[in-house]
Amino acid sequence: MSTGRLEGKVAIITGAASGIGEATARLFVHHGAFIVIADIQDELGAQVAASIGEHRATYKHCDVRDEKQVEETVAFTVAKYGKLDIMYSNAGILGPIESILDMDISDGFDKTVAVNARGAAIAIKHAARVMVAGKVQGSIICTASTEATRAGRAPAAYVASKHAVLGLVRAAARELGPHGIRVNCVSPHGVATPMVCDVLGMDVASVEARFSGMGNLKGVVLKKDHVAEAVLFLASDESAYVSATNLSIDGGLSTMI
């Protein structure tokens, strides 16, 4: 049953077949939204859409590195639901865990930047185009990271890509504000998503213990639902005058280092 915070709104969520994207998709629908799940994990994405219900969620294959596929996903959404209110550019990769001394530029740096930064730029571009054309005062949200403002232990390519996401958000917010479009990002600390667990070769409990030990705020373990709740705030009218903001979800970590 809808609680109305996103009642009747239409959203695209990239990378929504699992992890933070999936949690956000389910939360958005709970709050009354219609969702297009955009991902390259076809089987998982279709399963998530089916479990939510065809009336509220649709899966669309979309590789965010390919501008044509993103443009087609936006056009598909508008054709199906009549508009686009929310774009959550969430698809991302951690990339290889490697030293900058040994970095594979094409498969490491270029691929990581292509998914994380280029993908966000393409998502912002095509979401904004239809919002401006439809005179929709929409909300565009990107997933950045605590690494967007610091350089902790993450690989250089990942750090660079997330710094780029934050810059894109700020530049887009400046340009799109006159159209009534808000652009923000969320910057979570480490979350035990399937991707992170797979890259680190650790189970959920071990990943959570590792990242919680780094944090300043004790007694809380960061979950994907915490990030989804922050995205919901930025997508909803409760943040109607919030733009160009980087919402850190890190228990104060980024301000303590």
TrEMBL record:
Keywords linked to the UniProt accession: NAD
Keyword Methyltransferase attached: no
Protein name: Short-chain dehydrogenase reductase 3b-like
A GO molecular-function annotation: oxidoreductase activity, acting on the CH-OH group of donors, NAD or NADP as acceptor
Residue stretches spanning the membrane: none
Family of the protein in this entry: Belongs to the short-chain dehydrogenases/reductases (SDR) family.
UniProt superkingdom: Eukaryota
Pfam families hit by this protein: adh_short_C2
InterPro entries, A to Z: NAD(P)-bd_dom_sf (IPR036291), SDR_fam (IPR002347)
